[in-house]
Amino acid sequence: MGKRRQRPTWVYAVLASIIGLFLTASPALADTDLVVGGAGVVSYTNGDGVNARAEPGFQGALVTAFAEGTRVLVEAGPQAAADGTLWYKVSLDGVSGWVISDYLARAMPAAGDVAIVHGTDGHGLRLRDGASFNSATLTIIPEGAEVAVVGETVRDGEGNAWSQVSYAGISGYAFSSFLAVKLGGSVAQAQEAQVASEPSASAGIAVGGNVEVVNTDGQGLNIRYDAGYGAAIATVAPEGAVMRVIDGPRTDDQGITWWGVDYAGIQGWAHGGYLAATDKEPAQPTAQTTAAPANPGDPGQGSAAPASSIGEQIAATAMQYLGYPYAWGGTTPAGFDCSGFVYYVVNQV
């Protein structure tokens, strides 16, 4: 048997050098969640910046270069080049070009920014009183609405990013993944108009009668566990839903009138400005009308919305989606994966 031929040691040295160079020069995994019309930021270039080209692909003529950390407006994309790489068309100060997605990231909201609610599939984004999924819901910001970012990004114990924002005069924390930074502009006037035009309590509502959900622009009405925006949301009644009035009226510290209602067996409190008295009957049987509790904070006094633990609420919500389809990367009832299902359910509580 002949002696096996040994490769020279320099071969291994060259291979190691090539591998090291490849690992050093390779960009991070491409970000393809940039929002057209939102802001991206030049990232992962090790300070070298990135070239912008006249068309998608490395064959495109060089137009300009953007420095690391530069915020750019995303105009189009992602678009695949002939070699399979993905590119976004971006612009800054009137100069636009195509940048490979490997060196772009979605801009994180910062104090002073205007951001747009995006990616909720029409469900809207919960504004909470703290930077965690366990914090109470103040309101739901509809898809496409603009918010003012009033504080820096904070992270919860699990590393999730939360942005401190203001919407319609209400300040709180919103999950940053559903906010797309808008370059320039202001939302102050739109917010003031929205607050000023908030509907007043409807006439003709009385305990024992029925009410219909109105004036929500199709977003539906939050049914809360207590009277006030600071109370957690029990469910959302769609536009046009008919409910039985079981309690109220009650006025919160902002002067808003709330009515105790029974919607499909779920009892809670609804903003009177989005209710109209009706002769229609609820589509499903409702619970019997109950008297106002002597102490609304004591569940033992028969309050209209008995308290339950966060864990019980999460479990009850999760059970509603048994049998829904699995979809890799899915985060809505159209299709969930594991983490998407957990996030969706927790965000409903």
From TrEMBL:
Alphabetic keyword roster: Hydrolase, Protease, Signal, Thiol protease
Residues annotated as signal peptide: 1-30
Any one Gene Ontology molecular-function term assigned to this protein's record: cysteine-type peptidase activity
InterPro entries: Cell_Wall_Dynamics_Protein, NLP_P60_dom, Papain-like_cys_pep_sf, SH3-like_bac-type
Pfam families: NLPC_P60, SH3_3
Stretches for region Disordered: 281-308
Keyword Lipoprotein listed: no
UniProt keyword annotation of Hydrolase present: yes
Bias kind Low complexity: ranges: 283-294
SUPFAM superfamilies: Cysteine proteinases
GO BP annotations listed: proteolysis
Domain NlpC/P60: 308-349
Recorded coiled-coil stretches: none
PANTHER family according to UniProt: FAMILY PROTEIN, PUTATIVE-RELATED, GLYCOSYL HYDROLASE FAMILY 19 DOMAIN-CONTAINING PROTEIN HI_1415
Family: Belongs to the peptidase C40 family.
Protein name: NlpC/P60 domain-containing protein
Species this chain originates from: Thermorudis peleae
